Amino acid sequence: MPENPEAAEITLTLPVVGMRCASCSGRLERGLAALPGVTRAAVNLTQSQATVVGRVSVESLLERVASLGFEVPRARESFAVKGLSCAACVHKVEVALRGISGILEASVDLVGGEVAVEYLPEVVDYTGMRGVVAALGFDLVRHTGGEEPLDRIEAERRQENAGLVRRLLGGGAGLVATLVAAHWEPLGLDRVVALSVDATLWLQWLCITPVQFLTGGYFHRSALIAARHGSANMHTLVSLGTFAAYFYSVLVVVAPELFTARGMNGGVFFETSGMIIVLILLGRLLESLAKGRTAQAIRSLMALAPKSALVQRGGEEVMLPLSEVVPGDRLLIRPGERIPVDGMILAGSSSVDQSMLTGEPLPVARGPRDEVVGGTLNGEGAFTMQATRVGRDTLLAQIVELVRKAQGGKPPIARLADRIAAIFVPTVMAIAALTFAIWWLFGPEPAFTYGLVNAIAVLVIACPCALGLATPTAILVGTGVGANHGILIRDGEALESAHKVTMVVFDKTGTLTQGKPRLTDWSGDDSLLALVAAAESRSEHPIAAAIVAGAKARGLVLAQPTDFEAVPGQGIRAVVEGRQLRVGTRRFLVEEGVNLGAIPEALADSWATAGKSVILVALDGKHAGLLAVADTLRETSPAAVAALLRSGIQVTLLTGDNESTARSVAAALGIERVVAEVLPAGKVAEIERLQGEGQVVAMVGDGINDAPALAAADVGMALGTGTEVAMEAADITLMAGDPVGVVRAIALSRATMRNIRQNLFWAFAYNVILIPVAAGVLFPFFGVLLSPVLAALAMGLSSVTVVGNALRLRRLALTGGSPDS
């Protein structure tokens, strides 16, 4: 990166992670010193930090450190932003924060009134950020310890709504009084009190002034703050429009001769000013109420955790607040109660309803040594559990945090709206000024009045809010719907990418299959199976566990082996009830001297062709039978693959397993493309090859060996039953561990992106069509002008329309039948 001669010289000390020896520190020091613009670089291995002096950007330093194989720790934090009113405000705050040295990313959520910032704590702190934001006329507020951001947002929204209601009641009363004064004679009130026309004008002025300054103060204060900092926002447009109508009317009342001397119509617009303020406030209230409903899904998740838990302390059972529960505590869970924290069952058993986390409707059986998750609902049993993860470490808290971060993110489709929002308000002000000038210079008499009224209509009808809300409201509702169905989406980009997927690549083991072997077939009677299972009960091998489980499932009683020896990779030798058993591979039994001439080769071949592992059994030196063990398909795998293929999405099976097993599984599912016997690096290469063919690839896996491929894919999807490594590498986590979740995730992405496009179309079409109409383009052809009052009504309803459309996503039925459903 070239040196910037105009940049100020900086001295910067950064912590560096990854240095282990003097060679590391020397390499880093030389690399930093070679960076253009750096005059001195010093690396301290003991303190794990690097000091750089020179004319160089922080970003170029980070790039160089990363290219050398090290890392500079970064902080991520969310702050409340007070004073946001429209998309233009969002753009200003984001641009200002991104311009601060040390801030790597800033994303403002207009719906939640928050900004998520990624920054270097050694370079910039909260005070510096707050100062920059304050210079724009907004207030950056740090969350206090223990405060839930959603609780704060909801409390502030309730407070704002209460204020809006008070203003509406006061403004409505003043507006009604103004309308009565304006229609004094038509209402027949002159028969009660006779008032001259001038008197009614003064009465209108008296009644509307509190509405203009007190009720309208909601807009004027924000507009004034923005003006002081050399900017403008949506409230600027409202203030300009209403003050133009108000002061023009005041001038007509106090100095009518200024108009009559020029032959101009001296009509007043007091009621217009008041109706604009009241109608836009009403729209703001409706919008706020609708926005509050968009966060219902995440609030429902947060409400799953109970406020207290029954804990065993000092030999007594004590009801404690959830905040006082610590790992290691023993908790008593009674029938019908919600499980307060994550933990392991010590005693007792029950069925647990996990639908609120996984979306699966059927309860699952849980007993001693089984893990349970906080927020899930206990069934009819009672049990004692030990807390393992509490507070922000629980799975529920992590899900809430993941959903909240995703809701604050922005997909690429939002960038166009952001660019337009940056110039929207100044452009509208210019159009209003041009409208006034054209009507005054070229319009019919009274030209001045026509110009004023149409300019006011332009200012009032323009709605940057609809642009600003089009994307975040749909993201907010869509990610919430996903969370309720066990689909956790990392960010807005993942949500957008999923709808473009043309190829889904499945791992086999643990993804399309159960991930653990199961006894599927055996030759011989149950007595032989009981002997084999008894022998295998001493083994820890997964195949042995499958044989034992299969025998117990048939109700067989297993004896204790009197002798046992495992031969790694081959089989076992055992003595059960005085009988000599050899169980294992063909090669193992041959080496043990067993005559295999009586093996039913056709049966063994058919099992092997079906992808099953064939196990041979010898009893007292003679072949006695065969067993087959296989990793069976998940029940929903066929339906998931069929739904993807029906929708036109291609499917590939990518596995490290052998070719014959992979082909067998693929054939059972109707998958034609199979890539088998590949290592993790080979999976990444296959993903990249498909992307090179123009495919948008979703990789679905559950194991550690899937993590590189999940990260390489356009969309990585991890099953929630898999490893934490796989889930961290994924863009989307399917909590139910069900392949049908892939279909649901793509369906959710398509529905959300369709909703965003609808919102953006409405926001753009509304402004593109109605601003010219407000300016009067229809007047020369049809004699039609748009009243500023109707303009205010349209503006107030436009944002409500966008939010209401986003709320339709809450009715989305994610059945898994098709991504297009």
Give the topology, please.
Elements (H helix, E strand, L loop, with lengths): L9 E6 L6 H12 L4 E7 L4 E6 L3 H10 L7 E8 L4 H12 L4 E7 L4 E6 L6 H9 L4 E4 L6 H34 L14 H19 L1 H12 L5 H21 L2 H4 L9 H25 L1 H7 L5 E6 L2 E6 L8 E4 L8 E7 L1 E4 L1 H4 L5 E3 L4 E2 L4 E2 L4 E7 L5 H14 L5 H29 L4 H15 L2 H21 L2 E3 L2 H7 L4 E4 L1 H5 L5 E5 L3 H11 L5 H12 L9 E5 L3 E6 L2 E6 L1 H6 L9 H9 L3 E7 L2 E9 L6 H10 L3 E5 L4 H11 L3 E3 L4 H13 L4 E5 L5 H6 L2 E5 L4 H6 L2 E3 L5 H36 L3 H4 L5 H20 L14
Parallel strand pairs: 18-25, 18-27, 25-26, 27-28, 28-29
Antiparallel strand pairs: 1-3, 2-3, 4-6, 4-7, 5-6, 8-9, 8-10, 10-16, 11-14, 11-16, 12-13, 12-15, 17-29, 19-24, 20-21, 21-22, 22-23, 23-24
Helix pairs in contact: 3-14, 5-6, 5-10, 6-8, 6-10, 7-8, 8-10, 8-15, 10-30, 11-16, 13-16, 14-15, 14-16, 15-28, 15-30, 16-28, 16-30, 17-28, 19-20, 23-28, 28-30
